[in-house]
Amino acid sequence: MKQKWQPLTVQQAIQSDRFVAVRRRIFRQLIESLIYEGMVSPETEGSGGEARFTINGRDEAGLPVVYTFRGQRRFTFGRIRLSGMPIDRTADGMTREADSLSRFLLEIRGSLGADEGRLVTFIHELEQTLFKDALAQYDRFEQGMRLEGCSYDILEGNVMDGHPYHPSYKSRIGFDYADHYAYGPEFKQEIHPLWLAAYKEWTRAAVSRRLEYDGFMKAELGARQLSLFTEKVRSQEVDPDDYVFLPVHPWQWQKQIAASHLQDLREKRLIVLGTGTDAYRPQQSIRTLANRTSPGKAYLKLSMSILNTSTGRVLAPHTVENAPAVSDWLKELAAGDPFLHEESRLILLGEVLGISYDRPALSDLVQSSVYGTLGCIWRESLHSYLEEGEEAVPFNALCATDLDGRPFIEPWVRAAGIEHWLKRLLEAAVLPIVHLLYAHGIALESHAQNMVLIHKEGVPCRVALKDFHDGVRFSKEHLFAPEKCPDLLATPEYHARVNRNSFIEADDPALVRDFVHDALFFINLGELALFMADHFLYEEREFWSLVRQAIEGYQRRFPELRHRYQLFDLFAPSIEVEQLTKRRLFPDTELRTHRVGNPLNRCAETIAARAGE
Fold it and tell me: Is the pTM of this model over 0.85?
């Protein structure tokens, strides 16, 4: 690992072809999102296919600059997709490839209307994404990290492309490059969390009804380690019964906790215990660690004071406290639902224990510096659910390509046939989510890293879902069984002020429906539709026809839910999706969404035409 930290290695990565490839990718995603979210309106030449786009700007001297590129508006949600060709910049009569993300944004800022401070911050996020992804991709090719034949745990690191739409998909603000190598999932370094004893009176803890706390902690740490930690607390001349044991990410301890909790450490409200014996590795989300020593043990989701994509990665105490209650609720509903339990065999990776250190605030002025910075959610391991012959892959691996550019799923698709494979996938991945929405009134944020595909020799079987503490949405009025809904802590106003998109309960059922649409259809299936068209020449309209037919087949099976199909209308002409780039350029004081065309509506004519043949 130390060799990767050397400045020479960093320089080689920056001078490599991988750096250019990453820069071009970020440029494409940036421009695609700016156009799609209505922040720039390029001049367009050509229609009915690939067009030539032009964006005009001015350089620092006020002279005209022109950016040109080719692309098209696709059937899938009207997405803008640029070609693989570089973006050109013309200035002073000279045309060259655009090679500066910051210069591009500064030269078009007159038409963006963005907050200047946020524009500068966003430029930094893009440059950090370029730097960190270039290092990761360079290492991937140098090490020959293939996807084919990898286990689920290895794929969590080897599938490293990040968010396919968000341009600052790997910003990781707070990490320097040594941190990136040490803690980034791409590099698969072992991590040993630091354990603290936290004073119970200042912690917020919640335990699943299915869990016995003492037995769980003994199983997770081991009897000997648990005894050693207990004795260490006792050696501080305090009562171990007044404390709970809480893991912290080593980066979080070094960069945040040690300095910001000086008084707590001095007064023994926090006591350093040391590391355990188990080694962990980060999953794609960075802050979730998988136990490498004992894969069947729980995952640890830890607070990290970094910013990645649009979100800070701390753990808000109210969500930590809600986590076990939400998991218990979902699991109880699924266990009593024959469609979910017996047919779909849906796996819900329960969040069984949540602890956060939430000391009394001295003032709102300083609360933000420590809010959510020290907490953990223990989540069930996927390995304890896999049956004989089943294997798992992260859902975003379905749109990944290997080192040679070959789609990871190509052998599976060729063996089964495109339509048969897609139908099995939709049965496994879409219908459980749709059923939870229609039959129960619950929407899950089932985007890429929150969904895992379970397959047998490449044939989709079922899915595992995760991340429920803040990844559910519902309208209590429209729940099928509102009496079963747990009493959840509402989003505090000071949290809502910095993240208007963070809420669980909504009055409008359209907000519940669009939570499904934005995550499952716009991100997961939207990217897959584009991928299938680009790599397998399977038309997007046909893809969405298959999706609609799968949902319509479900609706015919459950006519008693007819009124729910109108309440949560997945076939509406348009839906609201989040403006991920606009959120980085404007204050987060309101919901940043825009209305886009729904391919599940537009494909109806294709189905009707096929039926009439």
Answer: yes
